Structure formats: structure tokens, C-alpha cells
Amino acid sequence: MDRQTLFECLVAWINTFDLNTKCENVDDLRDGLVIAKCLNSIDPSYFTNDWISSIKIDTNDNWRLKLVNLKIISKKIIDYYSEILNNPISDFEISNLNLIETNNEVMNIDAINHLLQLVLGCAVNCERKNDFIQIIMEMSENTQHVIKIAIQDLMSKDKNMNIVKNSNSMSFDDDVNYQLKKSMNEINRLNELKDDIEQKCKCLDKQVSELQEEKMAMLSEIEKLKDKLQREDSFRNDPTNDHNMNLKLQQSIKTLQEDLYRLDSEKEKFKLLFEEAKNEKEMLMNRCIKYEQLAKEHQALKDEIDVLKHTSEKVEKLESSIETYKIKLEEMGDLKRQLRALEETNSENLGKVFQLEDEVKKVNPLKSQIEMYKKQIQELHEQILQGQMNQKKLEYEYKSVEEKYDLVLKEKERIQNEFDQIKQDYEQLNINAQVMEQSKIMDISHDQMMDGLFSSVELVNIPSEIKEKIIRLYHENKLLKNKQNDLIDERLILIQSQYEDEKQRTNDLQAKLSNIQKEKIELDCQLNDLRKKETDLLNQKQNTSQNDQLLKSKDDQINDLKSKLNQIQSQFDTEVRKSEGTIKKFEDIVKNLNAEKDEIKDQKDKEIQTKEKEINDLNEKYRVYLEKAKIVIKSLDPRNSNGNTEVQYLKNQLVEKEKQIKQLMKENERIRNSREQEEQLIASAWYKLGANLNRRTTDERISAVGNSFLSQQRSLASTSMNSNRRITGTQNVNQN
């Protein structure tokens, strides 16, 4: 019986049902909706509307969804035969469903025919079988005959399958394994033949292309020879030579034509061989498809055997699990330990909650403290600037340079002595820092003792209220220590900035001392000039009253300047002592804070090292999983790797996970760098701000001051010179 006629008759029988659409091709039946509606009309009590709703409608060109629908229908039909008709047909061509979605028309029609035969069997054996048989009798005689043959074929196959099951139940596994091995060997042999044929085809294609190239070369040579003949005919007039040349050329043309005929014949032979190889390839491909079908059928049978084995293993596991549950009922001590662990975690969570609340409360007082520190810094700057202005005003007024020079030398020696004392104090502070570190170690040991007390078993019997109070006090103690450390860090930053400001001020004072020394030298020169002038005046006229008055006025000015210089020197000494005392205090505080800062840095470095170790452990685990995945992928058949979408999906997931890990590592490094840069920028901005404020205040005070000390001395010198000139002029007039 032809498969096409069987398909047409079965489609005509399906069109007798009340359907909204008519079926004409295989494409109309691939999605399974028409078959499901037919089954619903055959037995709506079993093939319900809820079952039809489970079938997917919008499949479009998705062959996977269509295949899922067909599998659902086939499973329901098999259940119908076994549950209602009491005629199981689980082995009737179920594996052919995959062939419905292939592009081969022969395979499609065979698979659809088998499925429609099952639907026909449901209709003929159901409760309404008389109605359906009456519908078949009303059809044409040819279709009736074909449908009867299909029903007989279905019934005969069912009987044969039952006989085979009863007779060969013992040797079934051996036959299946043997057939599977045989089919796999044939598939491998056919694949090898396929590869050999493809190589032969490639060689033939190369030979054909080479022969075509030779043919083209020969034709080009013939054309060249013809051109030469024409040229020689035009230039030569001797008939004998022409005749000989023509004979030679004709012979060469004949030989070339023979070569062309020979090459054409070889070309045709190769074409025939190529077509034969192509046909062999198609035959082998068809054989491969058949063997693959057989392998799938055998694999389905093997899967059923594995399912039965799996169920038996499950029964054994359930029995063992029952015994384990009996043992677990006796092991209640572990549950008590778990309860204790949960109580400890609860206490830790309470501590974390308290820490978070205290961190939230820290923000407001820190802001107010920062504002207070800023105001104090501004007041200190103003006080220092006022002292500097007073110092400048007093510096402009002193006169006795020799006494001042001696005092400055003495101050220099005194500063050197104080510097030596500061070094000694620095060494003592280092010793004190070591003592502080030892005390901190004792505090840490105390904290560890407290942690040991909280983790001890003796506190289990204490009431929960007392336990919560102890935990609360313990965490409050920790928070107070953390607050103290934070305040120390803030004070360290402020004191470092103030320490650097004081260093800058000391440098400014040293620069001012150097300027004062220069001014002293200039004033020495001016005093020498004045003394020379005084001696000249005394030698010239000792009795003049005007000179006496000038000398008296100069002496009075010198005495006033000496007194002012002494006052300035005393004020300068007091300010220097104050600044040195503040510097010593700042140095002590800075040293203590630096020691605490180093301890905090060490703790942070340890935490970073632990995190890096965790990251390395995770990377090692990930590499182990990658190697396992690669081994699994290699164990798969590489020829079927292109069709295995699940393996490709796993590979894509592995690649995405590698990218995510790299991105996380980059983000971790970027966050570290950004934190370090932020800390550096904050420190540099703080120092720059202090330096800029000092410069502004000094510039404003200097601009506010009018004339300097040197300008005043120069004006006095100019007035004295003018007065001397007037005196000499009057003396000359009197002499004349």
C-alpha cells in the first residue's frame, strides 16, 4: 500500500470531524492542534478541554514547541489505550515523532500515518465506535478499503508486539545492546565513507579546474601561432618556405586538437565519477538517517529499562532513609547545640544593631566639633597675626643695633640648646609610645577574655534579660572605644595641620631674623657715617649752639630707639617661648597619634589580606569547576557538538561568569585606588587651605603698614644732610 494514498485517506477521514479548518498537507498536522480536537470529539470525557489548553497554539515556525505538542498527544493516546481500552501499545512507533519535524517528506508522511492510525484505533474502539464506523461507511469505496487495511495493520502489529514481549522477555536486553553496537559501528563506517567520498570529490574538482586552465592555455597558444602565421605570410614571398611553414603549423594544430579532445574526454570521465560519488553520498546519508532512527528506538527501550532500575534503586534508598530517620530521632543533642548557636547569632545581631545606631548618632556631634575646631583655628591665626604686627611695629622703632646683634646671637645659642632638649624629649616620647602599645595589647587581651566569657557554656543557664544587659554593656564599651579612636584620628589630622603651620611660622621667623641681621649691617654703616659727621662737626665748631642741639636731639632719638628695641626684644623672646612650648605639645600629640595611626593601618592591611585570600580561594574553586566542565565537554561526541544546544548554553554561561569575575576584580581595584586618592586629596587640600590663609593674612597686614624702618632712617639722614649744608653755608657767609 502506497504511503501517500494512506495519508490522503486518513486526512479525508479527519476532515469529517467538525473542525474550523481543513487539513490538506503535513504542515497542517505538525502542530498537533487538529489531532487534539479530533481526540476531544472522540472521547471528551478523557480528552478534556483542560488537556487541550495545555497544548501550545502560537508555535509559528518553532519546531521544538510543535514536537512538545506531539509528544503530549502521543502520551495521552498511549494512556487511553492502556487505561480505557486495556490494550497497551507503548512500543508502537513512538520514536518516529521526531521525524515529523524533519525536512524529508518520506519520513514526515510515515510518522504522520502512524500517529493517525493510532487516532483511528481510538475512534474504532471507543464507546461511540458505531457512529464513527457509520461515518467511514458513508465515504468512498477506495477510502473505506484503505482505512480497513490501516485498522488491520494496527491490530496485527499490536498482536505481534504482545507475542514478542511474552517470548523474548529474557533475552531482550542482550538483543538491544547487540543491535545498538551494530548500528553504531555502521554509523561510524558510513561517516568514514562519507569523509573519503568528500575528499575524492575535492580532488576531482581540483583536477577539473587544472584541466580547464590547461585548455585555456592551449587555446591562447593556438591563437598566438595563428598570429605568427599571418605575420610570416605578409613578410615572406617565397612559396616553398610558406608551404613548409604551413605544413608545420598544420601538424602542430592537429597535435593541439588531439590534446584538446583527450582533455575533454578526461573531463567527461571525471564528471561521471563525480556524479556517481554524489549519488553514493546521498544513498549513504539515507542509510545514516535510517540507522539513527533505529538507534533512537533502541535508546528509548534502554531508557525504559533504566527507569525501572531507577525505581528499584529508589525503593532501596527509601528503606535506608527510614532507618536513618529512626537514628535521627535519637540524636536530639545536635538540635540543642543548634539552638545555642542561634542564640549566639541573635546576640551578635543585637550588637550590630547597636553599632549602627551609634554610627548614626555620631554624625551630628562630629559636625559641631569640626565647626568648633575651625573657629579655634581662626582665632589662633588672628592672635598670631596680631603678635606679628606688634612685632613688626616694634622692629621699625629700635635703634641700637650692636646690642641687638649680641642678643640675637645669644638667642641663637639658646635655640640650639632647646633643639637638643627637644631631641631628648622625642626619644622619651618614643619610649612612652612603646608603653602605650603595651597597654593597648593588654586592652585587646581583656576584650578577648570578655569574648571568651560570652562564648562560654556557663552563661547558658543565665536568664535572657541579664544576658541581654551584659551584651548591651559589652557592645557599648566597644562603641566607646571606637569613638575614642575616631576622636584620636580627627585630633591627629588637626594637630598635624597645626604642627605644619607652626613649622612654617618658625621658618618665617628665621627668615625675619636674617632680614634683621641685614638691616643691622645697614644701620651699622649709617651709624659709622653719622659718627664721622659728628666728629667733623665737633672739630669744625665746638661752640656752635645749633650743633649742640642737633647732637642732643640725635642722642635723645638713639636713647628712645634703644628702649623700644629692648621692649621688642622682650616681646619677641616671650612669643618665641610660647611658640616653642606649643610646638613641643603638638610634637608630643603628633607622635602619639602617628603610633595609633600605624596600628590602624596594620589592622586594615590584615583585613585586606584576608579578603584577598578569600578571593584567591574562590578563583581556585572556579578553576576546578572549569576543568571539570571541560572534561565533560570533551567526553561528548565532537561530531554532534554543533547540534547539542545544551553544551553551547553551558559554555556561554562559563564565559559570562569569567567576564563577571574579571569585572568584579577590576571594580575592587578601582575602589581601592579611589579611596587612596580621596585620602591623599583631603590631606593635601587641608594643608593648602592653612597655607593660603596664612599668606593672605600676612599680605593684608603688610599692605596695611605704611613706611618701613629703612625709609624712616633714610628720611632722617636726608634731613640731617640738608641741615649740615645749611650750617656750612652760613659759616662761609660769616667768614666772608
What does this molecule look like?
This protein is mainly α. It contains 15 helices and no strands. The chain folds into three domains: 3-168, Orthogonal Bundle (Actin-binding Protein, T-fimbrin, domain 1), CATH 1.10.418.10; 184-330; 339-521 and 556-595, no CATH class. Helices cover 86% and strands 0% of the residues. Residues 4-123 form the Calponin-homology (CH) domain. Its main location: cytoplasm. This is Calponin-homology (CH) domain-containing protein.
Which terms summarize this structure?
single chain, 736 residues, mainly alpha, Actin-binding Protein, T-fimbrin, domain 1, 3 domains, 15 helices, 0% strand, elongated, CH_dom_sf, dynein light intermediate chain binding, CH_dom, microtubule binding, coiled coil
